[in-house]
Amino acid sequence: MGTWFITGCSTGLGRAFALEALQRGHQVAVTARDLTTVQDLADSYPDSALPLSLDVTDEGQVAAAVSAATEHFGSIDVLVNNAGYGYRAAVEEGEDGAVRQLFDTHVFGTVSMVKAVLPGMRAQRSGTVVNLSSIGARICPEGSGYYAAAKAAVEALTLSLRKELAPLGITAMTVEPGGFRTDFAGRSLTQAATPIADYADTAGKRRKENDTAHGTQPGDPTRAAVALVDVVESAAAPYLLMLGNDASDAVRTALDALRGDLDTWETVSRSTDFD
C-alpha cells in the first residue's frame, strides 16, 4: 500500500478519492481549507488518514502540509491535485480579481503542490502525479472560457511534466471528468457579478440562476473514485483519463471537429514553408 496526498477533500470528487484510497488500505493525507470538514475521515481511519489544513494558493501552507505528510508517513507516492472550484462568465464579463484567483488556485496551486512533492518522488525514483482537469478544457462551453483556459493550462503543463518525469520512474496524468453529482455546479460554483445583456443567449444560459444541471449530473463520484484508484494502482496510467460517458462522447466529438478543420484547411496550412 502507498501514501496518497489529496487536495480538496472536503466534498465532491476529492472526498470520494480519499475515501476509496483509505478503504483499500492506503495511507492518505486528507486536506481541506477547513480542517473540520475532513475530521470524520480521520476519525474513521485513525491509523491511515492524516487531516491537514491546506489552501493551495498559500505557498507556506503547501510546504508545511507536504512536510507534515512526509514526516508522518515517510513518503508521498501519489499526489492528487483536486482542489478547485468553478467560475462562469462571458470572457468580457470576467472580473480581473476573480480570474486571477481562479488561476492562482487551479494553475499556480497545482504547480506549487507539484514542486513541493517532486523532490521526494525523485529521491525514491517513483510516484504518480494526478492533476484534475475538466471536459471543459476540451469543449470550451460558452460562459466557461476562464475555467476552461485554467484547466487547459494544467493539461499542457502535465503533458510536459509527464515527459520530464518518465525517465525518473515517475508518472504524471490528467483526469477530465464530465458532469458528476457533486457541489461543483452548486455551492462550489462562482460567477461574474454583473452580466451583460448581449450574452444572455450564450454565457447567460449557464449562469447559476438559469442552470438546472445541479443535482442531475450523470456521474457517480464513488464510481469515479474506484476508476481513478484502479488506474493509479495499475502502474500504466495514461496521460489523459476521461471519466463519464458524457466526457468520452464530448472528447470524441471535439476531436472529430478538429480533424475536420485540419482536413479542410490542410492545403493552406502546408503552403507556408519555404520551397
UniProtKB/TrEMBL annotation:
This is Oxidoreductase. CDD domains: 17beta-HSD-like_SDR_c. The lineage of its organism: Bacteria, Bacillati, Actinomycetota, Actinomycetes, Nakamurellales. Residues 2-178 form the Ketoreductase domain. Signal peptide: none annotated. The keyword Hydrolase does not apply. GO terms for molecular function: oxidoreductase activity. SMART domains: PKS_KR. The keyword Oxidoreductase applies. InterPro entries: KR_dom (IPR057326), NAD(P)-bd_dom_sf (IPR036291), Sc_DH/Rdtase_CS (IPR020904), SDR_fam (IPR002347), SDR_oxidoreductase (IPR051911).
